[in-house]
Write a structure and sequence with these properties.
The protein is mainly alpha-helical and 320 residues long. The protein is 76% helix and 1% strand.
């Protein structure tokens, strides 16, 4: 059995396990894994831009919030069904990046990161002070007409579908002209332009794809929780969380962001239950150790065949 066949078998086994999982556990674990799938989808969506171009969009949470609010407003004010409202939200987020993309993406490095944070805060303040968004009071979305039991299954599988969809999009990006252009941006943008690559176009396109999926996940989140307000959906800590997941799993890889999401969320839950008073300190220490031993993420260690020598080599390189 070659590597491709083994990967296919592993994927099929994982999908079968994910499909059977909610029918073998209680609602607590169904909700827990729904959150993991949500963060896996958010991390993977950001990975499309960050992992291949090296640009770090700390303000990407703005699309999560926009997707949530557009979905809610469409369902409440315009009486749109959830699927149509969700599609509108995702397309609106992608369109927004096409409008602001060219001027913002002229910035590089930490200037770009700070600019995205500024956009996120500006949109948050607008939402907080507009009447039709509910202002600081937030929005109450219509409850799913499924009943509590079926709603757990519905959102579990919907978030799983979101994560699989954006992972499929990432796979296509890695094997497309877009993926090669983004790698050129990361390696040497000036050199890429000298070779005739329209780097600005490809960066905007990657950001639009990322925004589309981030907005869609935000819309699902809003319908799932049935209530949203600006602090909960425009929280910058959400963006920091899924950026950490990308770095831990392996930026620019297909499976890395998902591994990072599983690691962070399961670790957080485990530490919270055992170290209630100082769980953040324990979590930070564990993340620091992972970064020291595996600076390129879990996927890198897998490619090194779980080599202890490779881990110790990273410690020596870090000067510790």
């Amino acid at each position: 059995m070659n590597k491709t066949q083994r990967n296919i078998v592993v994927i099929l086994v994982c999908l079968a396990a994910a499909g059977a999982f909610p029918f073998t556990v209680g609602n607590y674990w169904i909700r827990m894994f729904t959150v993991i799938f949500m963060y896996g989808a958010l991390a993977q969506a950001t990975n499309i831009l960050m992992g291949f171009s090296g640009l770090v969009p700390f303000g990407n949470v703005v699309f999560f919030g926009m997707g949530a609010y557009i979905t809610g407003i469409a369902m409440i004010t315009w009486k749109m069904p959830f699927p149509a409202a969700l599609l509108l939200a995702a397309l609106s987020c992608a369109t927004f990046t096409l409008i602001i993309g060219h001027p913002i993406l002229k910035l590089q490095g930490h200037y770009f990161a700070i600019a995205t944070m500024g956009i996120s805060e500006a949109i948050r303040q607008m939402v907080t002070n507009l009447d039709f968004t509910g202002g600081g009071m937030g929005l109450n979305l219509p409850l799913p007409v499924l009943g509590p039991g079926r709603a757990y299954y519905f959102f579990y599988f919907l978030m799983l579908l979101m994560m699989l969809a954006v992972t499929g999009a990432t796979y296509l990006v890695t094997r497309s002209r877009l993926g090669y252009a983004l790698r050129a941006v990361m390696a040497n943008e000036e050199g890429g332009r000298s070779l005739g690559i329209n780097t600005a176009y490809y960066k905007v396109l990657a950001w639009a794809i990322s925004a589309f999926f981030t907005g869609a996940v935000g819309g699902v989140f809003a319908y799932w929780y049935s209530y949203i307000d600006p602090p909960s959906v425009f929280d910058i800590s959400i963006a920091v969380r899924f950026i950490i997941m990308i770095l831990l799993g392996g930026a620019g890889t297909i499976i890395g962001p998902i591994l990072g999401a599983f690691f962070i969320e399961l670790l957080t839950e485990s530490i919270w239950s055992k170290f209630l008073s100082f769980h953040l300190g324990v979590l930070g220490t564990v993340i620091m150790l992972v970064v020291i031993f595996m600076p390129k993420g879990f996927v890198w260690w897998y490619e090194q065949r779980f080599s202890l020598r490779a881990l110790l080599s990273n410690v020596r390189k870090s000067g510790i």
